[in-house]
Specification:
351 residues, alpha/beta, Helix Hairpins, Rossmann fold, Alpha-Beta Plaits, 6-stranded parallel β-sheet, 4-stranded antiparallel β-sheet, elongated
């Protein structure tokens, strides 16, 4: 795409330049009787190869005739090159793609509280799969257009309407296009720990409230990325080792979690529901809000907002919900979304 655009730009520039040179040449060599309109008309019909009669007489002016032959020869080459560039642009559907890109950028600009995934490699691909399954809005950033195309083609069913930006995620302007200032979270999933460090620093500067999770292959970089502003770092080798140990020690638990993630008929997940200051749930008990009965959700743990508070596992039905409480539940994603929407409804006192 970039090569075709570059060719088209060069072709247009060459045609305009040759047109200007021709007009100047015809006026200077043609004498004072040649007007600007005559010179322009002569340049156009010569470059276009139409073959109309000469409006600027060259028969008795050897210098002008030599210049005219130069214009014809060079003009033919430039026009042919321009024609091929325009043809390639149209054949490859660039006009349609340009409109499609503008439409996609407009959609990205309208997103709020979305997630940004940097990198369309294996790490980013699996992260996006989870966002797709849970209905979470997101934007991908990938510098290699071919990699993004392969991802869309191989996972056509999953990535039908994926929003993505082709660009370098370490570029500040690219993060701005992805709406980093309005995002809820960012995943720095590039293969280079240094690049993920740069992304973390820039993203944190632009959005202090952003939750940043960074891939970190080298354990030495983990602390550095955390100090740079990442809320959490994930090491593929560490996760792989934990998975190996879990397969050996608790195979049935791993099988249950795999089944939960791969279930096709429904999307079962362990999710969190945050209770905000204005929520109508404040002051109610877990039994009263009806997580089990009304939403078919299983409360696994509760964490209060108080400083130093820890997770309370297997909370009782009589536990009172306060402002800032986070409830960890297990259930279908659709039921979790319903519960979140209800938890976000303002109480009459805070309306």
């Amino acid at each position: 795409m970039q090569n075709i655009r570059r060719r088209l730009l060069i072709a247009v520039s060459a045609v305009i330049t040759m047109l200007l040179v021709s007009v100047v040449g015809y006026r200077v060599l043609g004498g004072p009787n040649v007007t600007l309109l005559q010179a322009l008309y002569m340049a156009v019909i010569t470059l276009a190869g139409i073959g109309y009669s000469e409006v600027v007489e060259t028969a008795h002016n050897p210098a002008l005739r030599i210049f005219n032959m130069f214009v014809v020869l060079v003009g033919v080459i430039i026009v042919v090159y321009a024609f091929s560039a325009v043809t390639a642009f149209l054949v490859d559907g660039q006009i349609k793609q340009l409109f499609w890109r503008r439409k996609m950028l407009k959609k990205i600009g309208e997103l709020r509280q979305h997630y940004i995934v940097c990198g369309a490699g294996d790490t980013g691909r699996y992260a996006v799969q989870e966002f797709q399954k849970t209905g979470t809005p997101y934007v991908m950033i990938e510098i290699d257009e071919a990699s993004m195309r392969r991802l869309i083609e191989h996972e056509s069913k999953l990535f039908q309407n994926v929003l993505y930006i082709q660009g370098d995620a370490t570029d500040e302007s690219v993060l701005d296009q992805a709406g980093v200032e309005h995002a809820a979270g960012l995943i720095a999933g590039l293969n280079s720990d240094k690049d993920n460090l740069v992304i973390t620093v820039m993203a944190r500067q632009k959005n202090p409230k952003l939750r940043i999770v960074a891939r970190c292959a080298d354990v030495k970089f983990a602390e550095r990325i955390s100090r740079a502003g990442a809320n959490s770092t994930v090491s593929p080798t560490h996760i792989g080792g934990m998975r190996l140990a879990s397969e050996a020690l608790r195979p049935h638990v791993v099988s249950f979690l795999d089944m939960m993630l791969r279930e096709q008929t429904r999307t079962l997940r362990i999710e969190e529901i945050a209770v905000k200051d204005h929520s109508g749930w404040i002051g109610s008990t877990l039994e009263k809000v009806g997580l089990r009965t009304a939403y078919n959700l299983l409360p696994l743990a509760v964490k209060k907002e108080e400083v130093g508070s820890k997770f309370v596992f297997n909370p009782s039905e009589g536990m009172v919900i306060t402002s800032g409480t986070v409830v960890i539940v297990m259930g279908d994603v659709a039921d979790v979304q319903r519960a979140r929407m209800q938890a976000d409804v303002r109480s009459p006192a805070n309306a």
